[in-house]
Amino acid sequence: MVFMTKKIPITVISGYLGAGKTTLILHLLKCKMDKRVGIIVNDLAAINVDHKTIVNSPYFSEADRIIPISDGTISTSHRQKLVDALYDLATSDEIDLILVESSGVVQPDVVAASIVKGKTSTTQELKSVCYLDTNVTIVDGFRILQQFLPGQGEYNQDFVASNQLIVNQIEFCDVLLFNKIDLLTLEQKNYLQEIVRQMQPTAQFYETKFSQIAVNKVLQTHLFNAKKSLDELNLSDPLRLLNHAHETQFKINSFVYRRRCPFHPQRFNSWLDHWPPEITRCKGVMWLKTQPARVFTISQSGRAMDIIPSGYWIATLQEWEIKKMFTVRKNLAAIWDKEFGDRMIELVFIGQNMNKDQIMHDLDTCLYQSNEPIDDVNDPFKLKH
Ligand SMILES: Nc1nc2c(ncn2[C@@H]2O[C@H](COP(=O)(O)OP(=O)(O)OP(=O)(O)O)[C@@H](O)[C@H]2O)c(=O)[nH]1
Questions:
Q1: Do 260 and 245 have their domain in common?
Q2: At which of 249, 281, 311 does a domain end?
Q3: Rounded mean pLDDT of the chain?
Q4: Ligand 1 and 20: CB distance under 6 A
Q5: Is residue 375 part of a domain?
Q6: Using one digit for the tens of pLDDT, what is the confidence trace for 328-363?
Q7: Which residues are CB-neighbours of 70 under 8 A, at least 6 positions away?
Q8: Model pTM score
Q9: Residue 181 alpha carbon, nearest atom of ligand 1
């Protein structure tokens, strides 16, 4: 039995794929005011891109802790992993608060139930060492613009599965961040806010750009009232939700496209023009034949696409620097290739009913073929000086 002098507060961050959850975590790390933060990142895909993004951030300090849980559907086994990870963090005596980034397809009431009622594999009660403090839901204003069609003053009831998830996330929260307002006109913003407010009249409501919010609005707010919130959903036993039902219901799946050769920039750019609409979310890194030194980061959600240069491949560094990186980056040896170093294309795709074989095949046709001529003057990804 562990006796805790203080229980550790937990903020759970929910929101559909690409809504801005990792962006919020990075923002909170930047302005955390001397708190040691434990983070659990529950990513849907087999490789945890969010974990890498957070660890590589300059705001992630040595005092912080992070635990990635991949394939994050919060099925029964993942729920146990979450509970065990929370318990380990809370009892480590090394952190002051915990952030949980839910994978985009998890219903927040399921996560809340895990925290409120969870027991570790060794039957320790989670609530003896930590407590659910705040449920934050981030709503991607740009995405719901495309999904919530104009109705007669009420939101459209005919939601497809992903909409239902978004609605669940909106309905179950203490704080709602209405994000990506920079992508909306004033009229669109007002219309959507009305819809969201109809679904969630009680939560604290904030409009945000890039998830920028004052720390005290989302951390240690004491806004979650466990009994009331769980009872409101009429869950006689909240743990009954912790099965695979929602995974099949929403038919959302993921795969990783990984190659050890670069894209031909023009061909890849043409492929982007015919983006398969069933891909909800894509994120990862890309290597271009025309710019062999640069890492390009891709982040797409809905119709919004970001492709930005984000530093240089470690393989481009001096030999002594590379050696040093091997001691700093624990996973570098695992991904290092004798010929190409860390250069790779690694893209995670998440969506509903995606045609994986077709997408993989189409992307393969975008790869650079050895000895083919290449025109780097017309590289569409070239930075304009
Ligand atoms: N224009 C705009 N882009 C934003 C805003 N907030 C986040 N983004 C971008 O949206 C993309 C997705 O943001 P993330 O923070 O990775 O989203 P996420 O919810 O963690 O995504 P998943 O982990 O895949 O569910 C990134 O390219 C962000 O830079 C915003 O307010 N406005």
A1: no
A2: 249
A3: 82
A4: yes
A5: no
A6: 877 789 889 999 999 999 998 877 778 999 999 999
A7: 43, 45, 46, 47, 48
A8: 0.72
A9: 31
